[in-house]
Amino acid sequence: MTLRTRLCAVAGGVALTLALAACGNGEQTTPEEPAAGTATEETTDSATQVEDVHNDADTMFAQMMLVHHDGAVEMADLAVEKAGSEEVRSLAERISAAQGPEIEQMTSWLESWGEETSPMGHEGMDHGGMDMEGMSQDEAMAELESLSGAGFDQRFLELMIAHHRGAVDMAQDELDSGENPQALALAQKIIDDQQAEINEMEELLQGL
After folding, report:
1. N or C: at which end does the chain have fewer Cβ atoms within 10 angstroms?
2. Binning pLDDT at 50, 70 and 90, where does residue 119 land?
3. For the chain, how far is it from start to end, CA to CA, in angstroms?
4. Residue 152: per-residue pLDDT
5. Whole-angstrom distance, CA of residue 179 vs CA of residue 181
6. Is a pLDDT exceeding 60 seen at residue 5?
7. What is the mean pLDDT of the chain?
8. Which phi and psi (to 5°) does residue 5 adopt?
9. Per-residue exposure over 121-151, b if at least 16 CB sit within 10 Å of its own CB, e if not
10. Contact 109/187 with Cβ under 8 angstroms?
11. Which carries the bigger pLDDT value, residue 133 or residue 91?
């Protein structure tokens, strides 16, 4: 056996001995786990936080759309109870489910910006988005509550189409004048979602 071979054998034996000794002492090396509340929480925070940069258009958009969404959810929840057809009831459930989280989102933005979340009620909101064929939110709700069956479905669809068109107009105003990235993204989402729902409601009306 050459000197080189003997040295390699000795080195291998020493390494094996050290490894066995470590196991016998119960010493194990495990990958370090990230400290609790670091990367995961930071990712979540970054997804929920809104950028501070905003202008009057962003504030107005959030405030007005909050009231507008609240009105849509009120109408949709009534339709879930009173709709004569399953198609209208399903649509109403989807409207309520979609706009509820957006209400929470915009509320958190306004609080983060130090702005009022509800400076006006339905009575003080003269924006066209709340004007459904010349009717206020309260007037629309009173008419819907007096109807049932197919009559309810038709009137609900007519009023919600007008309501959605108002939301699309408000969202377009935000795209034209706003500057907050999250508010602009939500405005585009509202336009896309509610225009699709307008198309769906128009088709449902034709089938009544």
Report:
1. N
2. low
3. 98
4. 98
5. 6
6. no
7. 81
8. -65, -45
9. eeeebebebbbbeeebbeebbeebeeeeeee
10. no
11. 91
Two tokens at 157?
């669809």
Q: Work out the number of other CB atoms within 10 angstroms of the CB of residue 181.
A: 13
**How is residue 187 written in tokens?**
């405005």
Q: What's the whole-model pTM score?
A: 0.74
For residue 120, the SS3 value is: coil
Which position has the token pair 């979602």? 193
Report how far residue 100's alpha carbon sits from residue 124's, in angstroms, rounded to the nearest whole number: 22
Check residue 50 and give left, alpha or beta (phi > 0: left; psi -120 to 50: alpha): beta
Q: Are 153 and 85 in contact (CB under 8 A)?
A: yes
Identity of the residue numbered 40 = T
**Predicted pLDDT at 42:** 43
